[in-house]
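Example record

The entry below shows one chain as it appears in the dataset: sequence first, then C-alpha cells.
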Amino acid sequence: MNDELPNRIISGTVVVKPNISKFSEEGLCFDDGTSVPKVDVVIFATGYSFSFPELEGGRLINVEENSVLLYKFMYPVELSPHNTLAVIGLIQPIGSIMPISEMQARLFCATVSALWGDLVSNYLIKLAGHITLPPAIEMIGSAERTFRRNRRHFIDRRRHTVQVQYVQYMRDLAKLMGVEPKIWKRVLKDPILFNRLIFHGLVPYQFRLDGPHAWPGAREAIMGVEERVFGATCTRQTRETKRAKPPWKLYYVMRILI
C-alpha cells in the first residue's frame, strides 16, 4: 500500500470489499452477499512461506508456520558460539527494509573473526570482527522474548512473524555494534545537528556518525536529506511555499512537558 490508496478509495476507483466467499463460473461472490458477475483477473496476495531446505535439509533453521528462532532475526542459535552464518533480509519492517539489511550486514561483518575459503578466487577472506555475540542461552532468551512481544504488538498470524518496528530494531542493532550516535554530546558542540537528530526523521546516516566505520560525510548527508527527499518531489514553488517554514518543534515539546 502507498499514499495513492486513500485517494483511490475516496474517488471510487478502488472499492474495499470483504473476503471472497466463493467463485462463480466467470465471477465471484463476497461475504456480504454482493457479487461481481464477470472478473478479468484475481490476484491472490497471500504473502510468502519461507524455509531453508538447503541447510541440512531444513533442520539447521527450523521453520514452523513462518515462525523461526533467530537471534536478532539473523543468527541460528544452534551455531553459537561459531556465528559464521547469518540470514540477511528475512524481516518485515514497518519502514524501509534496505537500511535494515545494511545494518544486518554490518553486524555480521563486525562479529567474531571468521576465516573462510573463497572457492571462486582461491583467496582467504577474513572478517575482522570486534563484536562477540552473547552465549546461546542468552540468544535463545532474546529471540523468545522478541517472539512473545511480536505476538502482542502485531496480529498473531503467519505474515507477521518476522515483523519489526523500524526505529527500535535499527537502534537495537546499533547498540550491539556500538554505533549509536552520541546525541547529547552535540547539544553545545553541534546544536544544529542535535536538532536534526532529535526532531527530524531517523535516517540511517546517523549510525555512521560515531563508532566503528564512521563516515566523514554522515553529518552533511543528514543535514541535506530533507532537501534531497522533498525537493525532488516538489513540482513547482510559489511565493507562499517559499515563505512557509516548518513549525518550531521545540515549542510543541515544551508545551507537552508543561
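Notes for this example: The mean pLDDT is 84. Residues 151 and 161 are 8 Å apart (CA to CA).
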